[in-house]
Amino acid sequence: LLDEKFRMVDGLQSSAMAKRQGCEPSVFKRGIWNYIHCMFGIRYDDYDYAEVNQLLERMLKVYIKTVTCYPEKTNSEMFDRFWKQFKHSEKV
Q: One GO biological process from the UniProt record (predicted)?
């Protein structure tokens, strides 16, 4: 199930968030993916987790953790406040 979701996200074409962080979209997506896996106790020996802290600012990590672990706490107001400069389609 997680692999299926990752393939779907990996296929998204928008790279605005990655450009904002100054990296390649694939690197940015991999950082998010590994951060989410880490929250569920899945860690990869060949991945440098320091990259997660370089790629993902604190508020993004808080948002990702809330959406991932506590989706019932996510509401439209939180979604709208987060990264206002991006379109709805870029935040999904």
A: negative regulation of TORC1 signaling
> What are the residue ranges of helices labelled H in the chain?
2-10, 16-21, 25-39, 50-55, 58-69, 76-81, 88-91
Please state whether 83 falls in left (phi above 0), alpha (psi between -120 and 50) or beta: left
Local structure of residue 40 (DSSP, 8 states): T
pLDDT in tens, 49-74: 999 999 888 888 988 898 889 989 88
Predicted TM-score (pTM) of the model is 0.73
CA 92/CA 90 separation, integer angstroms: 6
Q: Say how far apart CA 13 and CA 50 lie, in whole Å.
A: 26
Question: Which residues constitute the domain of residue 85?
Answer: 2-91
The per-residue b/e assignment along 66-78, b for 16 or more CB within 10 angstroms, e otherwise, is eeeeeeeeeeeee
